[in-house]
Design goal:
By secondary structure, the protein is of the alpha+beta class. 47% of the residues lie in helices and 21% in strands. It has one domain: Glutaredoxin (3-Layer(aba) Sandwich). The strands form two sheets. A four-stranded mixed beta sheet has the order 4-1-5-6. The protein has a two-stranded antiparallel sheet with strand order 2-3. The longest helix has 13 residues, at 29-41. The radius of gyration is 18 Å and the shape is globular.
Length: 133
């Protein structure tokens, strides 16, 4: 009986899930300066995910922080150059992008085109919630 219980407990696998948000921005100084100039001078962000989730391009909005904290799945946020280092074999058609990582395998949850078309944080939150069902 003990052997059977050990076998059953070893064969039950709970997948490890994580959301990975990748911004259309890089951490190098030239990219950050260019992005800041676009935000300040043109009042336009080159990253639609940033525009939807950041207040004035500086800090995440409270509603976005609350949404992320209330998700049942842990989340990480990466700039595209950090993503490329962390996942060098992952091909990406465009940024920003949101992945669902399941046991180390990345599946696109929302692609760049879908995110770029969104006009509000509420729309983004609804799309994430729907895609996770």
């Amino acid at each position: 009986m003990k052997d059977l219980l050990q076998y059953v407990s070893m064969s039950i696998h709970t997948p490890t899930l994580r959301l990975i948000f990748v911004y259309n921005a890089s951490t190098n100084i030239l990219s950050l300066a260019k992005d800041a100039m676009n935000e300040l001078v043109l009042n336009k962000s080159v990253c639609s995910l940033c525009s939807l989730t950041y207040a004035g391009g500086l800090t995440k909005t409270r509603p976005w922080k609350d949404f992320i904290q209330n998700l049942a799945i842990p989340s990480i946020f990466l700039y595209k150059n950090n993503f490329a280092k962390k996942f060098p074999n992952q091909t990406v058609e465009g940024f920003p992008i949101i992945f669902l990582e399941k046991d180390g395998v990345l599946d696109v949850l929302l692609n760049a085109h879908e995110i770029d078309e969104m006009e509000s944080l509420n729309e983004l939150e609804q799309a994430i919630t729907k895609a996770l069902k």
